[in-house]
Specification:
It contains nine helices and twelve strands. The protein has helices at about 45-60, 90-105, 115-125, 170-180, 185-195, 215-230, 235-255, 275-285, 305-310; strands at about 1-10, 15-20, 25-30, 70-75, 110, 135-140, 145-150, 155-165, 210, 210-215, 260-265, 290. Helix 1 runs parallel beside helix 2, helix 3 packs across helix 9 (about 305-310) and helix 4 runs parallel beside helix 6.
């Protein structure tokens, strides 16, 4: 039986995934990088250090789970986006590991970007990359992008049609969460706090100019509100998510105006229950076919890379 390895070493998570020829997951492990309490991220050198320590541990844990399979290819994320100016040292840890495995096994090595990996993680659940262009939404700790993706021999050729002009949706959520003394990354905790708040809070209006939205002003408002005290955590969290949605909605309106009829939404922020619900309602209303990752696969993971390796080697 054939199997394919995917590796992703992002700013937040060390991820390894193995899929079979039918794109089903055979084995998978992830380790979220350790961020000191009260901090909102890590230095690149610290990311590389943690990834270097984590990768052997992950492979040691899953090595028995692919017993009986033959590894036929490896795919790895090697940069944030597929652009010449896109570089981040964190990905060197995964790339070095993948190159070593591919060389030892004498199998093909495929390199894709972290952004492609996220979109491909959604397409794995569909079971095909296809040949038709599609619109994508990438919401994560560092990215808020409306995309136009064209499948090609290297993965997905992506054009950015719009996004955040300052901080990303994930940064907005994380900064508010950390200021509320929630663990980092804070997305899951903000989501829980918002869901537990009994009221209904309307988010603030987000301006969109030439495809660019802005969250920094509203993040500053949230920080002032937190420092003054008196506003319940759940209310602040619900307002934050509702404001993020109002910004995302503006990006989707941009996509609709450009002819969007199919949307693949990916990235860690798409794990958020409130945002998924709002997006499903929006796409249903506007007759847009929406593809979301399976539960647990919006956050950083290596299933997209593993799927790409299997797709490239398909019979």
């Amino acid at each position: 039986m054939k199997a394919y390895i995917g590796i992703d070493t992002s700013c937040y998570t060390t991820s390894v995934c193995v899929v079979d020829a039918a794109y089903r997951i055979v084995a998978e492990r992830r380790i979220i990088l350790t961020v000191p309490e009260g901090k909102r991220g890590l230095s690149q050198s610290n990311m590389v250090y943690q990834h270097t320590r984590n990768l052997p541990k992950l492979f040691e844990e899953i090595r028995r789970e692919w017993k009986g399979y033959t590894i036929c290819a490896v795919a790895v994320t090697d940069q944030p986006r597929r652009r010449q100016d896109s570089y981040m040292p964190a990905f060197l840890a995964g790339l070095g590991c993948a190159r070593t495995i591919a060389a030892l096994l004498d199998v093909p090595l495929y390199r894709i970007s972290h952004q492609e990996n996220h979109l491909l993680a959604v397409l794995r659940t569909v079971g095909a990359v296809g040949t038709e262009p599609f619109y994508g939404l990438h919401l994560s700790g560092g990215t808020t992008d409306l995309l136009y993706a064209v499948p090609d021999a290297q993965g997905l050729a992506i054009t950015c049609l719009g996004g955040s002009g300052d901080i990303s949706a994930g940064q907005f959520i994380d900064r508010v969460g950390v200021s509320l003394h929630l663990p980092f990354p804070a997305g899951i905790y903000v989501d829980r706090a918002a869901a537990q708040w009994p009221g209904s809070v309307k988010g603030s209006a987000v301006v969109c100019h030439e495809g660019k939205i802005s969250f920094s002003g509203w993040e500053s408002k949230a920080q002032r509100c937190i420092s003054h005290g008196g506003t319940p955590t759940g209310e602040i969290c619900q307002w934050t998510l509702a404001t993020v949605w109002r910004g995302v909605e503006k990006l989707l309106d941009t996509g609709l105006a450009a002819g969007m009829s199919r949307l693949t939404a990916a990235g860690g922020v798409m794990s958020n229950g409130y945002l998924r619900q709002q997006m499903e309602g929006y796409c249903q209303q506007h007759k847009v076919q929406l593809y979301l990752a399976a539960p647990g696969y919006s956050a950083d993971n290596a299933s997209g890379a593993a799927f790409w390796a299997a797709w490239q080697e398909r019979d």
